[in-house]
Design goal:
Elements (H helix, E strand, L loop, with lengths): L2 E8 L5 E12 L5 E2 L3 E5 L4 E7 L2 E6 L14 E5 L6 E7 L2 E8 L6 E5 L9 E6 L2 E7 L4 E16 L18 E3 L7 E6 L5 E5 L11
Parallel strand pairs: 1-15, 8-10
Antiparallel strand pairs: 1-5, 2-4, 2-13, 3-12, 6-7, 6-11, 8-9, 10-13, 11-12, 13-14, 15-16
Length: 213
């Protein structure tokens, strides 16, 4: 599986959190929220690298009220694919919530059916990529949440500490920058300079680092 890498160079005067999140997913459920997909602390003059593969997963959390600042900690992560094993059911029994009955469904769409044991806003369900959550919605009984991804990647820098999985208020990141991956490009250099200006440089001739390297 192809690995992608983004190297962030903090040449600003500030320490803070560099984070990545995604856009570009159609969701049929109300109150959908974007999560901090990746985040790392970074001091002035240091570099941070994010690496991932495009492999999807189903996720759920006992967190039901998804408001900015709340951290979505996945209680279960189940691998999926856009072409097969792309439907699953969330249920609740005497031991708690659990995914079951993974199956094939309409290609290109990730389906999460919530059966009649699921309370309204008692939990949350969503999807992830490369092991980390990207989008989540509050639970509703007898509702199928449909996620149709065509991901676009964004990077932002915050003076505040932001954890991976934290619910984001996307509108607050007015200076976020899109990270493009042209054809045959798997590595992008990103720099935040002393004037807090972004410089994004795709490097088509550079191989991405191994995901476990």
């Amino acid at each position: 599986m192809t690995a992608y890498s983004v190297r962030f160079k903090n040449k600003s005067k500030n320490a803070g959190t560099v984070l990545m999140y995604q856009k570009g997913v159609d969701i049929n459920a109300p109150d959908a929220q974007s999560l901090a997909w990746f985040s790392k602390g970074t001091n002035s003059g240091t570099n941070v690298t994010f690496r991932w593969t495009i492999d999807y997963s189903f996720v759920w959390s006992e967190i039901g009220e998804l408001t900015p600042g709340v951290v979505f900690n996945a209680n279960q992560v189940v691998d999926t694919d856009l072409k097969k094993k792309n439907a699953i059911t969330l249920t609740r029994n005497e031991s708690g919530y659990v995914f079951k009955d993974q199956s094939d469904s309409e290609p290109g769409v990730l389906h999460i059916y919530q059966d009649d044991t699921i309370p309204y806003h008692g939990a949350s369900v969503g999807i992830g990529m490369s092991g980390n959550g990207t989008f989540a919605v509050p639970s509703q009984p007898k509702l199928t949440a449909l996620f149709t991804p065509h991901p676009k990647y964004y990077m932002a820098f915050s003076l505040q500490h932001i954890q991976e999985g934290q619910i984001l208020d996307i509108d607050q990141f007015t200076d976020a920058v899109e990270i493009p991956f042209p054809p045959s490009c798997y590595f992008v250099d990103v720099e935040l300079d002393e004037t807090n200006t972004w410089h994004v440089t795709p490097l088509p001739n550079v191989n991405a680092f191994p995901i476990n390297g």
